[in-house]
Amino acid sequence: MIVTTHKKIDLRRKVAYVLSLFSVSLFLWGCRNDMGQVKFFDRQKLPDQMLYNANITHSEYGRVQMRMTAPVVAQYTSPEQKTIYPEGIKMVFFDESLHKSAYISAKYASTYDNKGLTMVKDSVVIIDFNTHDTIYLEDMIWSKNEGRVYSRHLVEAHNGQRITYGDGFESDDNFDNLRIIHQRGTVEVKDEPMDEEEEN
After folding, report:
1. Tell me, what's the pLDDT at 35?
2. What secondary structure does DSSP assign to 83-148, as a single string?
3. C-alpha dihedral over 56, 58, 64, 69, to 10 degrees?
4. Does domain 10-148 sit in CATH 2.130.10?
5. What is the DSSP pairing of strand 89-94 with strand 133-143?
6. CA 71 → CA 7, 51, 55, distances in Å?
7. Rounded to whole angstroms, how far apart are CA atoms 125 and 134?
8. CB of 157 within 8 A of CB of 11?
9. Number of neighbouring beta carbons within 10 Å of residue 70
């Protein structure tokens, strides 16, 4: 049977951890090029640079923190400076022991440097390997200029047999005040077979 509950589940820590790493890493990646794989175009409306089969590793103090892959990266300078990931991205984060700690994937991503915007959308998946939680989002937007991260679409988080839903989320970009909008949840309880005494 399905039991519905409105007890709030603490998603703040799970969402904040992976989104904070994600936001910083995507902007860092947008500023880097592998010149050996770049193709240049000068025709209007075409990308200034194209990067294929991108594989980027981000490290600090010699420790790998994140690996990101994307089939295609397109960078534009006109009519606005932006970087587009039209075939999606995959990101894996590592803890201090170099064990996988989190994973993010999306079928589309983009950064707009002049506007200070980063956006991922279409089948966004966030996995916390430490807790085995999985979060599904339709989209996620980081406005660097406004100092906030938000989504106005369905948020779905899975933890074992418990599923938590929300109608989006919003937070400052330090994730000190993250709020799941209209958070609600359901708990699936498996029916157990009755013993002979209960049947009689």
Report:
1. 43
2. EEETT-EEEEEE-TTS-EEEEEEESEEEEETTTTEEEEEEEEEEEETTTTEEEEEEEEEEETTTTE
3. -30
4. no
5. unpaired
6. 41, 8, 9
7. 7
8. yes
9. 20
Q: What are phi and psi of 58, to 5 degrees?
A: -110, 125
Is the pTM here over 0.85, yes or no?
Answer: no
Q: Strands 2-5 and 100-106, how do they pair?
A: unpaired
For 14, the token pair is: 């799970």
Q: For residue 118, give the nearest of 89, 153, 154, 82 by alpha carbon.
A: 82
In degrees and rounded to multiples of 5, residue 43 shows phi and psi of -80, 145
Divide the 200 residues of the chain into consecutive groups of 10 and give the mean pLDDT of each group. 40 57 54 48 69 87 86 88 92 87 91 88 88 87 87 86 86 72 72 54
For tokens 């397109």, the residue is 74
Residue with tokens 């933890």: 159
Q: Please report, for the chain, the start and end positions of each structural domain, with discontinuous segments joined by +.
A: 10-148
Rg (CA), the chain: 20
